[in-house]
Predict the structure.
Amino acid sequence: MLRSDTFVKLAARLKPTVVSIVTERRIANTYFHQQWGVDPFGRNPFNMPMPRQFKGRGQGTGFVINAKGYILTNNHVIENATKITVSFDDDETYTANVIGADPKTDVALIKIKPKKPLQVAPLGSSTNLKVGEFVVAIGNPFGLSHTLTVGVVSAKGRTSIRPSGRLLYANFIQTDASINPGNSGGPLINLRGEVIGINSAIRKDGQGIGFAIPIDMVKTLLPQLRKGRIDRSWLGVMIGPVTRQLATSMKMKDAHGALVREVVPSGPAERAGIQPGDVIREFNGTAIRTFNQLPWLAASLGIGKTVPLKVLRNGKLLTLRVKLARFPSQPNRLSQRGPQYQDPGNGVVERRLGLSVASGIRSHNGRGVSVTNVEQGGPAYLAGMRRGDRIISLNGSVIGDASELAQIVTSLPPNGFVRLVVQRGSRRIFVAFSLR
């Protein structure tokens, strides 16, 4: 039962664990050069001092997770900082160093050298968090130190939020507890006084909507953040959502799963036999309902671990095993274009798919036809096909030449749906779209 002093007690317990973070950054002075151009001798028309850099300041929040001075915050709060100053509710101030940071989850671990053991914010669990639960956010909105706001969990599993513009693993908790600029990196707390998330983002176009990184995701990263290096496991696929239209065309009972759009050459997935067009329905015993579940599952299981997965292919559910590798700094994505041919102007293919293919030219292995032109604004163009792609199969049927492709396209109903496996250089990708 919620008591009148519930939030008073939470504030008293947790405020001493929450810190204000002020950062300094060196920012290049580009304004003058943009307006007046660059003098080759380093002078300016008015003979005024023209600093090449100036100091910028940023603000955020963090919270103590270890009595010896370890503090969690957002990566975007401390990124590129030349100096980090941490202040407590009692005005104690320290300089902090970055121990580890992860831009892909927007989490960072910093450390101070306290004069005495610090009070710690207990870490709870976000796994069993329910929509409608009361939550409390503590932070420094607009520089107003140690502000407490109250709200509820509005939703879970939000994935389209990008506070730093480059998140790869996103699974946010949405809340209506007020989260404003300066709150970033602060704790989202349940009524037991446990941290269940790190406040990370707000919707600029929606007042009263804030987002927090689930604490269970953060706890998985902590051992690596302490070491100063993030090593992730890697599956080696490019994925997308399973639309209802695609699910219907594949005779699926539902639109659950992760659609494999591309398999990285020589990666773990290719070695395991995963193909473009497969739908991953289960990974290491976890049912995949939406495609955005998969990246974090694959990244957090561990390098070298072999896991089972179930894929739907041509109406059959297959069980495969994949040995996860280390996430590369840049996935092996090679040639972007295939060979070019003259456009023969194929009638039915051009009319219904919005592309032309090479006639009478058979590939060296007898599989596939090369795309010689893609109509701008047509179905194939909007689905991402390019000149030089080679169509390997359509709706599960292997394509040998242009006449076979035309025969299959002719047999499809009006507004039918096509599923293509396409070779693009060394890459093999999956493309799906509606016919005209």
Observations:
- Residues 215-227 form the longest helix (13 residues).
- Residues 134-227 form a domain with the Thrombin, subunit H fold (CATH 2.40.10.10).
- The chain has four domains: 6-33+53-111, 134-227, 233-326, 347-434.
